[in-house]
Design goal:
The chain has helices at 20-27, 55-60, 66-72, 89-98, 102-105, 133-136, 142-148, 165-170, 182-196, 219-227, 232-256, 285-288, 311-322, 331-337, 367-370, 386-389, and strands at residues 44-50, 78-82, 111-114, 119-122, 152-157, 175-178, 211-217, 260-265, 271-272, 278-280, 291-297, 300-305, 326-330, 354-358, 363-365, 379-380, 390-395. With 403 residues, it is an alpha/beta fold. It folds into 2 domains: 17-108 and 116-271 and 385-395, Alkaline Phosphatase, subunit A, CATH 3.40.720; 275-380, Gyrase A, domain 2. The protein has a 7-stranded mixed β-sheet with strand order 2-17-8-1-7-5-6, sandwiched between helices. The chain has a 4-stranded antiparallel β-sheet with strand order 11-12-14-13. A two-stranded antiparallel sheet has the order 3-4. α9 runs parallel beside α11 and α10 runs antiparallel to α11 (232-256). The longest helix is centred in the middle third of the chain and has 25 residues, at 232-256.
């Protein structure tokens, strides 16, 4: 996309990450959902979320992920999805888990302003004790609705996410199995499926319950932040993921044939930012005049104005300094462009009065609020560049995707 024009609005109604679990539920026969993405019919549906594995990263490193690359190169088994705005884990996982746009589920960034408590709060791993996840995101999740239909649901993830605030807000419902390594998570998922579903040909009574499995892999994202996407440690982690998901998918196909489908997708991509392009705005009076709070993340800032009369002034100042490297929009402009999809009234004040979405090699930090630690991160995401917002959807049991 040209950096001289605003990015296209997220394709909320089309090939979007928010439709992955809802389409999988529909493919399992769960009523109330639409198979927007053409997931093949099955009675066992597994969705693997590889945090940080953008489509461009998979394309660039396909030689280190030969199993995934085989599906990625096949037109019938691969699609490119949009993740929406911002391209950050909390927002994307909430869209995946609820089937809603950020403007509805309300997790509109990494750090966002909470009007009820009057301060910026974290939406990922450090939720404020004064923020109730069930109030912040009140819509039912796909897991809750699927389990209520009679299907069996499992989340296989890290143990600390069992009762995390993000899980309670957007991924609640069904059973949970925790393991620290990605290999163990795949093993737990396989064991759970075998415990719920006899292998075809064995003695069983009646029609088996549909099974939905969500398997979360965050190793690539963590490694990319620390060492950079495409670094040697990152590539080793990609190879480990490819090997684990290859064994899992092939065994599931062998045991259950077309009863099972395995999908892989991601929540965002990642770009590497060199140290001299990581800019601290602390003390910049020209940028912070009229700003009461900063939020978001280094490539998608939310700027909250002291009052409405400062909004245009703040936007103009940021355009003057970063206009050649960032898209700067007011909240109203972003809503008109459809950046957050449909926006509920309760969510409006959580969105910055001014939004700064970086498209150049740049990351902007406010260390007075965040501390210095984020400055060390090499891999970054959050903005609406192709590298950050486009993610793969792969069917890994040799079945075709429609839609």
């Amino acid at each position: 996309m040209s950096t001289n024009t605003m990015p296209e609005a997220p394709d909320n109604a089309g090939r979007h990450l928010r439709h992955v679990l809802t389409s999988t539920a529909a493919a399992l026969g769960v009523r109330g959902f639409t198979n927007q993405l053409g997931i093949p019919p099955a009675s066992i549906g597994v969705v693997v979320l590889a945090d940080g594995l953008g489509d461009q990263l998979l394309a660039a490193h396909s030689g280190h992920a030969r199993f995934l690359a085989g599906a990625w190169r096949c037109r019938s088994s691969a699609r490119i999805l949009d993740t929406g705005a911002p391209t950050t884990t909390a927002s994307s996982l909430a869209s995946l888990g609820t089937g809603l746009s950020p403007g509805q589920h309300g997790l509109v960034g990494y750090d966002v302003f909470a009007p009820d408590v009057g301060r910026v709060v974290n939406m990922l791993g450090q939720w404020d004790d004064d923020v109730d996840p069930l109030t912040w995101q009140p819509y039912p999740t796909v897991f809750e609705q699927t389990a209520a239909s009679g299907a069996k649901v499992l989340t296989s993830s890290r143990p600390q996410f069992r009762d995390s605030a993000l899980t309670r807000a957007a991924l609640r419902g069904g059973e949970f199995a925790g393991a620290e390594t990605l290999e163990q998570r795949f093993n737990l998922a396989a064991e759970w499926i075998r415990s719920k579903r006899p292998i075809p040909g064995s003695l069983q009574r009646g029609r088996p319950d549909p099974l939905m499995v969500y398997l979360y892999v965050d190793e690539l994202d963590k490694t990319g932040h620390r060492a950079g996407a495409g670094s040697e440690p990152w590539i080793r982690m990609l190879e480990a993921l490819d090997a684990a998901i290859s064994r899992f998918s092939r065994q599931l196909s062998h045991d259950f044939g077309e009863q099972a489908t395995v999908l892989l997708t991601a929540d965002h991509g990642m770009v590497n930012i060199s140290e001299d392009c990581r800019i601290d705005i602390t003390g910049r009076a020209d940028l912070l005049e009229g700003v009461s709070h900063t939020g978001g993340e280094p490539r998608f800032l939310h700027l909250y104005a002291e009052n409405a009369r400062y909004t245009e002034h703040v936007a103009a100042q940021w355009r003057a300094v970063f206009g050649d490297q960032a898209w700067v929009m007011t909240r109203q402009q972003a809503m008109e462009e459809g950046w957050f999809g449909k926006v509920d009234q309760r969510v409006l004040p959580r969105i910055g009065d001014v939004l700064v979405a970086v498209h150049g090699e740049l990351a902007l930090f406010h260390t007075e609020r965040t501390g210095d630690a984020p400055l060390k991160m090499v891999g970054q995401h959050g903005s609406l560049t192709e590298a950050e917002r486009r993610v793969p959807l792969l069917e890994l049991t040799a079945r075709s995707l429609g839609g």
